Amino acid sequence: MIKLKRVYDPPSEDDGYRILVDRLWPRGLPKSKARIDLWLRDIAPSNELRKWFSHKPERWEEFKKRYREELKNKEELLRKLIELEKHYGVITLLYAAKDREHNNAVVLREVLEEIKSEKNI
To answer: In b/e form, how buried is each residue of 82-120, taking b as 16+ CB within 10 angstroms?
Structure first.
C-alpha cells in the first residue's frame, strides 16, 4: 500500500516506511521531529519544473505531464520504491506542499500504481 501524507502531519505507526519525496527539506521542520526513514530527493521534480509549477492549480495538468516525462528517466528509483513497498507492506510518500491534491507525491503514487498494475505486482 502506498499512502500520501503531508510531512508536517504527525507521524503514526500505520505510516509504515516514511519517504520524503521533495527536493528541498521542509521549512521549519527539525530533522529530529520529522521521523523520515528515507529522503529520496532525486525522485522529486527538477528545480526548473518545481519552480515553474509553483503549486498553481491551473498548471496542474501540464505539471503532471512534465513530471511523468521526468520520471521516465528515473526507472531505478521507481523500482526502489516498489521494492520498499513489497518489503515493508506500507510506504508513505511525504511531501511539504499545503495542497493535498496538487503535489508531486500524488503524481508519483499514480505512476507507481500504474507500474505495479502493468507488471502485475
So the answer is: bebbeebeebbbbbbbeeeebbbbbbbbebbeebeeeee
State the sign of the Cα–Cα–Cα–Cα dihedral 8, 31, 92, 77: positive
Q: Which three cell numbers stand for residue 54?
A: 509553483
Nearest to 7 by CA among 24, 68, 71: 24
| Element containing residue 112 per DSSP (H, E) | helix 104-118
- The model carries a pTM of 0.94
Q: Write the pLDDT tens digit of every residue in 81-109.
A: 999 999 999 999 999 999 999 999 999 99
Q: Is the pLDDT of residue 120 over 90?
A: no
C-alpha cell at 18: 516514511
> Which is more confidently placed, 31 or 6?
6
Domain positions in the chain are: 2-118
